[in-house]
Please model this.
Amino acid sequence: MADEKYADYVKAVQKECPEADAQEVAEAFAKYEEEFYIPPQDAMRSVLRRFKSGTGPTPQSSSTTSARVTKKVASLSELNGEDRDIEIEVAIITHNVRDQTIRGEEKQIAFGMLEDNPWEENGQRTRWDYKDWGPHANLASGSIVRIEGASVNEYNGKMSLNINQSTRIVVLKEGVATLASSNDPLDIADIPADGYICVVGRVLSSRPDQIHRKDGSGSIDVVRGRLADGTGSIGFLSWEPFEHEVGALLKIDGAQVRSFRNTPELNFGRTTRIEVFHDASFADVDTLSNEASLTISALTDGLRDVDATVQITDIMKRTFDRNGEEGFLWSGQIADPTGRCRISIWDNLPFKESDLPVTVSIRGARVRAWQGIPDITVDEGHQLTVLEVPPWDESMDLSELSVEVPLPEVVGGASRVGLKTDGIVVSVRDDSGIIHRCTECRRVLREGACFDHGANPGEEDIRLRLVMDQSGATAALLVNKEASLTVLGLDEPGLKGIVEEHGGLGFVQHVRGLLLGRRVVVSGRSIVDDQGAMILADACETRVEDAQMKASELRTLWGWA
Amino acid sequence: MERARISRQPAHLLLASEFGSATLHEKGSGEYDPSFVITKLGAKVNRVVAAGLLERLELRETTNGSTLYQGQLRDPTGLHYFSVGDYNSETLRELSHQWLERIDDGEPLLLMMTAKTRWYQTDEGAVYTSLRPEEACVVSREVYANWLLDACESTHERMTAYTASLEVEPTVDAYRRANLSVSLLSARQHYGDIDLEPFKLNLMQSLDIAEGRMEAATTPPPMMSLPDGDAAVANDGTSTPLSDYLLQAIGHLDQGEGVDFETVIKNAIAKGHVREAAEASIETLLESERIVEARFGWFSVAPSD
Model:
């Protein structure tokens, strides 16, 4: 039977290995096809090898190339954080002068943005901030200059250029500030994380505030508030007097965007031009306030003047002692259909604890994040309004809600709780399996000692440490004990049995056999910070598709059916 | 600070043909900047998830006395070359050892691996890509089929992006606006216009296999190109699979100066042909004037009339 089907292949094999038995060769082809989905043409080489030791090409040996950074560069991307005394030709995009007190001396410095590759039209350009400590009189916006002897500054992964007093500036093309980029108003939703921009928006809120200098040398009067257009809203901080009332429609040119924690904010300074703008069709305050109300998924650390409608699912009073004075706060869990997070209320509740769950509308709150989880902080009870009915389907159980979020969004967004996502397991870390945690802080012990608490008897726990990828995004994945056992299909004694028999690394390889390259669906919470994204999963399952169904689905989808 | 910038590179699901046909390399100037291979479809890969039949695995001694396992992994579209050396974990070397014994016993093994991509250029200018596995395991055909489908989906996404890019002005800004990756632009500039048909055929073949439609996925046996085989080299200059392949390879690799002899031969061997047959076939092609030797040892496809 089998030998007939593979007759041509058997012949081909026998041509090279005349002594091979036709029946055996045919059986080998059948095995590859039936057990491993390897069609005969792909199995050919392997079968041949079995019947005759074959020869094959060999991959090449290794070679390494290392590039040396030269100080004279054509583009900013060639620079790294340690470079000193560099030379580059750039276009000056913006140039601002400001007074700054340096070591007790009032001094002028200049700052702004510059762009490399100034000569090529429509070429790829990189934009950096610069600071000119000179300041050099011949530096002006719109000009193209050669900077000789500047140094690179790197802070929190952001690169900028320091133009020192000793730096030489050679003007190659006089500045005509033709770059109108900052004069085209941007939609608020499109505001970048930093830079100088122009925006048209309506004032949603505004209040005077003070910023205290860290060194105790006094405080600065500022105005804080929120600005909105049809696409979104953004907080602002004005360092200059700001007397526009709530509802005023303004065109603001030359506002600086700065990110506080994870949240961009507009800064108005001396060089910012603010004028009243007239547009009868611009949305009014009420509409904008409603639209500016945020969902939990959009909360980021450092947001201020936040309006939101949420359900409080759980609340607890906590008291503390501060300088001999007793204080309290209410701390709890909140949810809306986009996710869950925490709330802290530093005042009496406008409802009874026994009324939970309660839907409230929150106005003017701020957001702090603890362990990456947003926490809406409400300072005064009047910021909360209890709603009779939630604005979403009342029958939704929000306390157990898991919102499905694609991995790239998890990685690109803020930390959140109650999420569900899927991806391919690309790594099973060697420290998966049985671990010991510090009895004081739950940190994993290394060689019987805790980083903070020293030698510790430890408490046994089980976890998997994986890496999952999806659509070009990558996240570390920590699976808790219960979910680990479930996904491996083991109970605790079973798992220990494998570890005892094969050792810790043998166990890890066993896990790879079950999970590597497999698609998993996980739920839990995420922590996103400078180190990347981490998902703490309390549920994890492998998703095995029915290959036949999926293949026909793809064919239909691609029009190949 | 330095560490925070070096984030883990995501893994791409790549079929062997897409990775194997890539020749473009990209690496930042910093010492620790990751290195990437950019494929014809614009995938910029530092790490892949590959799967397939372990077709060959051999232990080699290198000149400095260390040991190296070299192997090849076959999926429906072609071969991945990989090596496991002393720099790899004990676990992976131990596994390689076990697998070597198992395939020497003729046992078929389906492997799944995550691997770093390597790019290498010989002094003559020939470009090779290969994989350095980080983690690997043996999988069942169901898992393999699932991986194949995921890999097909991600390949198809890149094909769609490629088609979309044909309408887009070739600048970084225009690509960004069109939501296309900058690496696709680099690919377009490096590879020029490419033919999507082979990729489509690869996907169809892979879908058939994932579905278990083995009859559909089976093709007639290749002519094994034996040096003394009567069918291997047609002396009258008509087509054989080997000569067709050589013509295609020379046409493809030719960057204007022709392709050197060793490169042609190496490519033919990589495709499963025998060296002597390939050499003989080049002779035949020369005699029948379907290729020309512009200068000694360098070949181009003869201009058609």
